Amino acid sequence: MSTAPTRSQPRLLVPALVFIALVVAAVASLGTPLITSVATAFGVSLDSAQWTLTIALLSGAVATPVLGRLGAGAHRRATILVTLAIVVAGSALTVLPLPFAWLLAGRAAQGVGLGLTALMMGVARDHLPDKRGAAAIALISVVSIIGAGVGYPLAALLAELGGPRAAYGLGLLVTAVALVTAWRSVPAAPEGRSAHVNVAGALVLAGGLFLVLFLAGQRGLWSRHLAVAVALAVAAVLLLCVWTVVELRSGTPLVDVRAMRHPAVAGANIAMFVGGSGMYLLLTLITRYAQTPRSAGYGFGLSTFVAGLVLIPFSALGFLAGRLTPGLRRRISGPPLLAGSAAIVGGGFVLFAVARSSPAELLVAMGVLGLGVGGFSAAMPGVILAVTPKSETSSAMSFNYVVRSVGYALGSAIGGLVLAAGTGRLFPDEGAYTTAALVGVAVMAATTLVSLILARRGSPTSSPDAA
User: Fold this and answer.
1) Cα–Cα nearest to 42, from 159, 154, 173
2) What is the dihedral of CA 65, 71, 74, 76, to 10 degrees?
3) Which residues pair with 423 in a beta bridge?
4) Are residues 302 and 344 both part of a single domain?
5) How confident is the model at residue 162 (pLDDT cuts 50, 70, 90)?
6) What count of other Cβ atoms lies within 10 Å of the Cβ of residue 380?
7) Which residues of 238-268 are buried (b: 16+ CB within 10 A; e: fewer)?
8) Looking at 148, 168, 196, which one is the last position of a domain?
9) How far apart are CA 466 and CA 385, in angstroms?
């Protein structure tokens, strides 16, 4: 017999949805602080160890629209439980004493959980009152981003004490708890819905996203084999164009591409793509700068664990912004909030560019970044869902998260390319960080401009649940 709650039990539902979204985000991001530990423990190169992060992002980007489409149907609860079971199984593979290939398989399975965030939003929108549902959706969006800041320092500490398997053991524990939480708390979808997965579209999308993420992670390919990199980039663009055509012709598309023509939806996704690249760029710059040894002439030589603590202001202020944004949303429409949040992130870039002589200044810049990212993430769902039917909540937000993932990959690539262009003997020249920060200022200025244009076009100001 199902133990799922009904609309009369929202108090337990919101913490459950937020917890699940936080867990899948934190577990998928475990690859970031463990790359060096994995390379040492498994005797592989750093480039190979980097795939413990890349493969999770890739599987998440592919799984997100598929799960979003399944979540639009009658079997949403089963989809959530099966997906979490896959994440738990993948977590077990990362802990068991198996070869490196099995670790990658486990990380791919963990990344599938990233597709659950949009489903959590769909549950909140269907089973909570309008005002409470909007606040819950905003919070789910925020924790899906700050989850990296929550898991980073703890995973780094466990890796220093017991190796990467100890850190991945934490992932196994929390994903098992998330599975039990979902079984106890997530209700079934409303009756009368159906969903079909466009398998051909999913395969073409997987190929395109694989090339995008591969090119973002292989900076050496751009410097040593530019012609090959350009050819792969063209292939990626062609695959994504083919995917768009397939989706337009399909009677059961993964994503309703036609809905992207709505100014609010198109503008929000463009802002997410551009803004996401800038946000991830600053996060990368600050953490890398903090760990650069003082022998380079700059940096603070922080250990992986201590560098992870630098993310605490990011998570704390991001969470605070996520809590405050729904209240502001009732007085200010979504696009101006996106513009203001993007401007705040731009301010974080300015701070990093002009003041990074002490760890305290890095903490301030990271806090400003968290404030901007939290506000941006909390405002984004309202802009898209104001013009989206309830039945399409998961599908619409899943596309937005694919866009975000690609934007993050682009931000990582931009940072790597700019720093590589200014590399000295072992480490980048400090001026390369200033150059990268100025690039980030330009990116966030463009995001602010897109958001303001969206506001002038009269984006809907209704709550997400009023559509």
Assistant:
1) 159
2) 140
3) 428
4) yes
5) confident
6) 29
7) ebbebbbebbeeeeebbbbbebbeeebbebb
8) 196
9) 9
Are 50 and 217 in contact by the 8 Å Cβ rule? The answer is: yes
Quote the pTM value: 0.80
Task: Name the nearest CA neighbour of 462 among 330, 352, 271.
Answer: 330
Q: How many domains does the chain have?
A: 3
Nearest to 133 by CA among 14, 227, 303: 14
Structure tokens at 388: 């989206």
DSSP designation for 187: P
* One domain, residues 397 and 456: yes
**Last residue of a domain, which of 196, 212, 238?**
196
Contact (CB, 8 A) for 393 and 385: yes
Task: Please check whether residue 369 lies inside any domain of the structure.
Answer: yes
Bridge partners of 428? 423
Note the pLDDT of residue 226.
Answer: 81
CA dist., res. 437 & res. 77, Å (int): 43
Name the DSSP letter for residue 218: -
CA distance 327 to 375: 11
**Domain hosting residue 60, numbered range:** 1-196
Report the pLDDT value the prediction gives residue 441, as an integer from 0 to 100: 95
- Out of 91-100, 120-129, 253-262, least confident range: 253-262
Position 367 pLDDT exceeds 90: yes
Q: What angle do CA 79, 112, 98 make, to 5 degrees?
A: 120
Are 190 and 207 members of one domain? no
Whether the CB-CB separation of 313 and 246 falls below 8 Å is answered with no
Alpha-carbon span 196 to 211, nearest angstrom: 26
Residue-level pLDDT at 193 = 64
Can you tell me whether residue 262 is helix, strand or coil? Answer: coil
- What average pLDDT does this structure show over 54-74? 79
Q: Which of 43, 37, 304, 30 is CA-nearest to residue 162?
A: 37
CA 223 from centroid of its chain's CA atoms: 27
CATH code at position 28: 1.20.1250.20
Q: Is the pLDDT of residue 27 over 50?
A: yes
Summarize pLDDT for 14-26 with one digit per residue, the tens.
899 999 999 998 8
Q: What are phi and psi of 428, to 5 degrees?
A: -60, 150
